[in-house]
Amino acid sequence: MAVNDLTAVGVMKGLVSAGLRIPQDISVTGFDKTRLAEYSNPSITTVDIHRDLLGQMAADALHALCSSPNPQGREYEVSRNWLWEILRDPGTPSRTSLSVH
């Protein structure tokens, strides 16, 4: 898993240069669901982090901290239902898919 889709494309280029076939020999996953993931060949499996929802959650947390006379840190649970969205080229073997339960 690469830190982002751009890095995943670079990793793919290096793997192909080394003689590996993607996804037949090895899978590559990006992390940020950019258009690059859709347009690379083969397309990259990627994780959609839903920046808008995470940004809203962060803004709400900051507002709660600033509004409290005695601010305390807290944990926020992120639902897997909206955090993980997978892009997969329909022509690739199922081993390239990512399943989160």
Structural class: mainly alpha
Q: What gross morphology would you assign?
A: elongated
- What integer is the average pLDDT? 78
Helix content: 25-40%
State the helix count: 4
Q: What's the β-strand tally?
A: 2
What low-confidence regions span 5 or more consecutive residues with pLDDT below 50?
Answer: 83-101
Describe this protein's structure.
There is one protein chain. The chain has 101 residues and is mainly alpha-helical. The protein has 4 helices and 2 strands. It has helices at residues 5-17, 35-39, 51-67, 80-83, and strands at 29-31, 45-47. The chain has a two-stranded parallel sheet. The longest helix is centred in the middle third of the chain and has 17 residues, at 51-67. The chain is elongated, with a radius of gyration of 18 Å. Residues 83-101 have low confidence and may be disordered.
Short synopsis of the structure:
This protein has helices at 5-17, 35-39, 51-67, 80-83, and strands at residues 29-31, 45-47.
